[in-house]
Amino acid sequence: TEQIVGSVRCVQETQVDDQEIHLELLWALSYMSDGENWQIEEVISFARIPYFICKQLLEGAESNKLLALRCCANIASGEHDHSKLLIENGFLNGIKPILQSSKKAERKEACWAISNVMACNYEEIDAILK
Fold first, then answer.
1. Closest residue by Cα to residue 65 from 18, 26, 38, 121
2. Which residues, including other chains, have CB under 8 Å from residue 37's CB and lie 6 or more apart?
3. Mean pLDDT of all residues in the chain?
């Protein structure tokens, strides 16, 4: 985990705009966040990671956006605070275009992520419906 976090920190501090590097980091974060709450906590315990994921969801290359979406869905499957953190880092802005995609699989993945966020409490439901 520390190596991945260090990589994310390095990419952000040096403003590396290499989509392949971003994609590899997203793959690692996707695998790391797919599991129990303690695994999700491990991923989001570093403040830059949720921001990095949500930024890729909004601005990344197409393949990065979909993987960032998977990371968000994994994170949102955890606790209320996990979903709240995603919303605070721009998840809702990033998911809107994916919901309008012409590809059914992308819309389905976006709906899964939203359902995970909405499963937490009324704050998140209200944020999504606005």
1. 26
2. 78, 79, 82
3. 83
